[in-house]
Amino acid sequence: MSLNEEVDLLRAIPLFAKMEPSKLKLLAFTSERLTFRPGQDVCRQGDMGDAAYVIVDGDADVIIDTPGGPITVASIGKNDFVGEIAILCDVPRTATVTATSKLDTLKISKDLFFRLVQEFPTMAVEIMRELAHRLEMTNNQLTEANRKLKEATEGAG
Fold first, then answer.
1. Rounded CA gap, 97 and 75, in Å?
2. What average pLDDT does the structure give for the chain?
3. CB 29, CB 43: distance < 8 Å
4. How many Cβ atoms sit within 10 Å of the Cβ of residue 96?
5. CA–CA separation, 148 vs 3, rounded Å?
6. Closest to 31 (Cα-Cα) out of 133, 112, 89, 139
7. Domains in the chain, start-ordered, CATH in brackets?
8. Cβ-based neighbours of 133, under 8 Å, separated by 6 or more
């Protein structure tokens, strides 16, 4: 993929849509292109985060380890962005991301990610929007799980 094709790809991602073409070129040039095979982990829950990933092509599952076993909490694909929580909050990865098909990504280092956020307030706003959306989805899933649990315990008692 050429540098211009990678710039076009980045421009299609809401997080980067409002960045100047020259900055997108810099991002495309300084990020690392990685390909993962089906079943291969992009990152693992508990590992320290050193980068975020933009999905260029393919699909992956977001999996959380629980005492009852792993749970797939989301499926992601082209133009999605993962790994930002660990680098924003300086905490271990909150989930494992596993390729479910051939997965092409752009790996954005922690340092580059923070430089971009500082230079582009609109990017910071897009990150907040995405994180708020994920929180809303999580709250909806928890509400539904609690409802089912309540129904199950009331039906058994």
1. 9
2. 87
3. no
4. 20
5. 49
6. 112
7. 3-156 (2.60.120.10)
8. none
- Are 38 and 99 in contact, with CB atoms under 8 Å apart? yes
Segment 39-95, tens digit of pLDDT: 999 999 999 988 999 898 999 999 999 999 999 989 999 988 888 887 788 888 989
88 half-sphere exposure, CB direction, 13 A CA radius: 13
The sign of the dihedral angle between the CA atoms of 111, 122, 138, 99 is negative
- Picking from 37, 29, 32, the residue whose alpha carbon sits closest to that of residue 53 is 32
Q: In what order do the strands lie in the sheet with 60-66?
A: 41-43, 96-99, 60-66, 69-76
- Sign (positive/negative) of CA torsion 45, 81, 86, 126? negative
User: How far apart are the C-alpha atoms of 57 and 46, rounded to whole Å?
Assistant: 25
Backbone angles phi, psi at 19, to 5 degrees: -80, 150
End-to-end CA distance of the chain: 61
Give the chain's count of helices (H) and strands (E).
5, 8
